[in-house]
Design a protein that fits this description.
The chain is α/β, with parallel strands linked by helices. It has helices at 10-17, 29-35, 39-50, 65-79, 91-102, 115-123, 133-137, 143-156, 171-180, 189-194, 199-216; strands at residues 2-6, 24-26, 55-59, 84-88, 106-112, 128-131, 162-165, 184-187. Bound molecules: SN-glycerol-3-phosphate. SN-glycerol-3-phosphate binds next to α7.
Length: 226
């Protein structure tokens, strides 16, 4: 499972890349709005930082298929041909996915709440589909189970489309989907930090250090002890 960062602030992305094995960045219009800056300025900064080959997912906002196609062309021109175009899986979005695939774009079907949306987007040629775990839960359905079903649905139908699970509220949800071997998960900075944060680990490390200093002296490590 690839781990991606669902974020638009470059300083946050830098901080997480420094520690976590992130393989890309995903954004959506709301994430870009939070930066308060011109979208292409923000996205070019992200692209320059993560590199030409890394995955960058950028969403279109137009209502018609023609608008979405034009947006996808501008996005690819500005940010590289390998930028994934996020397209909401609704009526116009479905038509747009087909047009974009004819245009040789990489496409992520997004705003996925149901298994059928995922199936249809995959049949239309989407490279990824992004089901929203937490938002599905908030509708009274089971987000994790929906993602598992979509993963199975793709395998059972010989579809090469990958799942890019999104909208997580905690690290347990990420872990559970990692166990299933889904294609990718994109997580917020907060959830990413929680994948590693563990007081028991901090305490164990602190005891090791204290014991060692008791043996060799304050501040001593394996580089400068006897
Ligand atoms: O990019 C879509 C998805 O990540 C939204 O997440 O946390 O706003 O539900 P969230």
């Amino acid at each position: 499972m690839k781990l991606m960062i669902d974020e638009g602030q470059i300083q946050v992305i830098r901080r997480l890349y420094d520690v976590f094995p992130a393989e890309g960045v995903t954004t959506n219009p709301s994430i870009l709005a939070k930066t308060g800056r011109p979208p292409y300025e923000v996205l070019k900064e992200i692209r320059a930082f993560i590199g030409k080959e890394a995955q960058l997912h950028v969403q279109v906002t137009g209502e018609s298929r023609e608008e979405m196609l034009e947006e996808s062309r501008r996005i690819r021109r500005e940010l590289g041909e390998n930028t994934f175009i996020k397209v909401p899986v609704n009526r116009e979005g479905m038509a747009a996915i087909r047009l974009m695939k004819q245009d040789k774009a990489l496409v992520t079907g997004t705003a996925v709440y149901t298994r059928m949306q995922a199936y249809l987007a995959a049949q239309a040629g989407a490279d990824y589909v992004a089901p929203y775990v937490n938002r599905i839960d908030n509708l009274g359905a089971d987000g994790i189970q929906t993602v598992k079903d979509i993963h199975a649905l793709f395998r059972n139908n010989g579809l090469s489309t990958q799942v890019l699970a999104a909208s997580f509220k905690n690290s347990q949800q990420v872990q559970e989907l990692c166990l299933c071997g889904i294609g990718a998960a994109t997580v917020s900075a907060d959830v990413m930090e929680r994948l590693l944060k563990n007081d028991a680990v901090d305490m164990a490390v602190s005891v090791f250090r204290k014991d060692f200093e008791g043996l060799c002296g304050q501040g001593k490590t394996m580089k400068d002890c006897g």
